[in-house]
Structure formats: structure tokens, C-alpha cells
Amino acid sequence: MTDDFRDVEVYFLDLSAAHSGLQVTPHWSKIRVVEVLETNGEFRVELMRGPGGEWLALYNDAVVDGEAEVVAKGQKEM
Hints:
The chain is mostly beta strands. The chain contains no helices and 7 strands.
């Protein structure tokens, strides 16, 4: 069974060139689908999976200074 949820946090992350790959929300366990609802920059948000579980990763493809704002909605297994 799956359950829709919306993450209540807004993430503010350094998007300078020195921080091109940032992993966030390491406790999004058992997530199967993630949809980014809005962002304030040109970057990708990906759901990553590994031995430790699932997490979101932010990648900026261009040189951007400032902070990222991400609101995401996901679906997880119950």
C-alpha cells in the first residue's frame, strides 16, 4: 500500500559552484516517487537509493550563488 505525503520542510541550501551536489533529507525512508512542486533555481532534484535507504539530492548544473528553495511531494510505501 502507498501513502501520499507532502514534506512540510522547505530546504535552504548553498548553491554556489563549490557545492554542486548536496544530499538532503536522509530520513525519507521507503520513498518510491518524488515530485518537485516548486524551486527557485536551475537545478535538478533526484531521489537516490542506496544501502542506507533513500534520500533526495540537489545538483546545480550552472554556476549559481545563493540558496535553493525546494518544496517536494512524495509517495512512500506504508
